[in-house]
Protein: Homocysteine S-methyltransferase
Amino acid sequence: MNFLDKLKNQILIADGAMGTLLYSFGVDTCSEELNLSQAEQIQNIHRAYIDAGADVIQTHTYAANYLKLQRYGLEDSVKEINSAAVRNAKKAAQSNAYVLGTIGGNRGIKTSSITIEELKRSFREQLYCHLLEGVDGLLFETFYDLEELETVLTIARKETNLPIIAQVSLQDPGFLQDRTPVNEALKRLEGLGADVVGLNCRLGPHHMLLALEQVEIPKHAFLSAYPNASLPTYTDGKFHYEGDADYFQKSAQRFRDEGVRLLGGCCGTTPDHIRAYASELKNSIPVTEKVVKLKQKPIIVESPPKREYTPLQEIVKERPSVIVELDPPRKLDTTKFFEGAKALKEAGIDSITLADNSLATVRISNESLGYLLKSELGMRPLIHLACRDRNIIGLQSHLMGLHTLGMNDILAITGDPARVGDFPGASSVYDVSSFELIQMIKQMNEGLSYSGKDLGQKTAFSVAGAFNPNVRSVEKAVKRLEKKIQFGADYFISQPVFSEEKLIEVYENTKHLDTPIYIGLMPLTGSKNAEFLHNEVPGIKIADSIRERMALLNDNPLQAAREGVAITKSLIDTALDLFNGIYLITPFLRYELTAELAAYANQRASEIRGASYAENTIF
Ligand SMILES: Cc1cc2nc3c(=O)[nH]c(=O)nc-3n(C[C@H](O)[C@H](O)[C@H](O)COP(=O)(O)OP(=O)(O)OC[C@H]3O[C@@H](n4cnc5c(N)ncnc54)[C@H](O)[C@@H]3O)c2cc1C
Ligand code: MET
Ligand SMILES: [Zn+2]
Structure:
């Protein structure tokens, strides 16, 4: 009798974890490889689960695909490992248990760079091994990404009539990562021909039962559940799971009440947990009716997003706009910083931009100074946000804080790596790069966290991307801009440009884009500054004539700075012919220089506007 026939009339017990069990025994390398080198041990664990009462066991092949095996240089051993794994499970099962060939999901919570074609290849390789070796059914487990599971299920259903179990994993008890309600997801899997649909991993019994309360008993499939033992804890350098077998035993009947017919365990479970389930439910009669607590898709409050200002990308499309960077100090005295901010406010700038530990050098946090500028001086802070210092949790919590404080203008950057900075031993986090950060922020504007959790409100961020035209190939840099636009960038802010030729080159290469650019300009403060930028900062080239002008004033710092301002004014004149946005960078907190330049740019901008107004009204 195939195990689907059995499931028609009785609950079956499945096995528990293999990976975490081996890890608890000290295996911290590729445990799937043990199917080859420690076949007997693997068979012993399978037997321990069968002795504990499992009717159905699974091959130890969850991560035995080329995408995951390549981490260990084992990508060419897919066939060997999967075939050995099936043989191990069958040898242990004899005729005492059914054997499922397990294939795990690849896409996790982060936006994955794995393409559908790679997923298909990875899946097919494993599938054919399992079919050739002969299994009683297939178990597709730990799929966070519904698209991935639907893709592989469709392939498998075409290839075989064997029973297929398709299981998703949830971050949130109710919804998949893409916000599909769990009930809808399982129905879709049933529609694609899965014989058993269900949940495994990530959630322990409590949350998995909460999710199952929202699931109807399928009409043409059976329901399965493989909860984790508990949340993991990290002690003495190792992960542990705590949920004990008694706790599992108490949950068993509740799984039955939710209509589950195949009940096993996932991470952290052991033969004791399975024994507990078997003692409660083995051979028991399944329920056929239940009251479902269907949840609707979360309603994201459609209140107007919390926005105090017109987004900069809208302003700069309408008229010339000047923003100025004034970096948070490296020391705790903020007097000069606030003096500078006041001077820039008087110069009439649209926004003051605050770097995030630029060059990986520690500075006062930009959100705290930004908030003071906003609340005390009524200025509009634009907060740079680098991926380098924060993981996905930190980035999101930081963004939620910025929203709460009403700071909606963000420059999303990957960030200079920690090794360039003043704490070279610090680690760069880079959970995401600027592309995904832009996407994360845009998702929050839809009221959803990066993993798709409902935030209850929409944020109103306007997101800039960084543009570095000081590279060998501006065309390549523009390709990055195009990619950032695809990820949701609203406008760009560039590194400083030091020559008219570069301004024109950038204009020529970007004029096809609708997305506005604030072009960067920074006054040189002296000859040493000019030589440093020209010779030591990758990509920055300053015309010989300019460096000569600065060199002539080497002994007169005041005059040199005046020269730097004069050069930048002439660049502003050209820049305003080509771009609407001017981004001035304040060197060494010398705000008097950028305040003067901002006033100049604003005056030139109003002259241009006056002239175009006159042109439009006269004719
Ligand atoms: C306006 C502006 C403000 C900035 N503010 C800060 C700040 O506050 N804090 C801070 O730490 N850093 C800051 N930076 C520096 C920035 O983080 C680095 O210059 C970064 O390497 C490029 O910008 P990004 O972070 O958006 O990188 P991304 O565009 O995401 O690029 C990431 C990686 O790709 C590389 N890359 C970028 N462009 C190219 C290209 N054309 N060809 C090949 N490889 C490329 C980069 O070197 C980097 O390794 C700022 C840069 C700009 C332009
Ligand atoms: C990471 S969830 C899948 C786990 C797998 N069934 C194992 O225990 O090895
Ligand atoms: Zn698991």
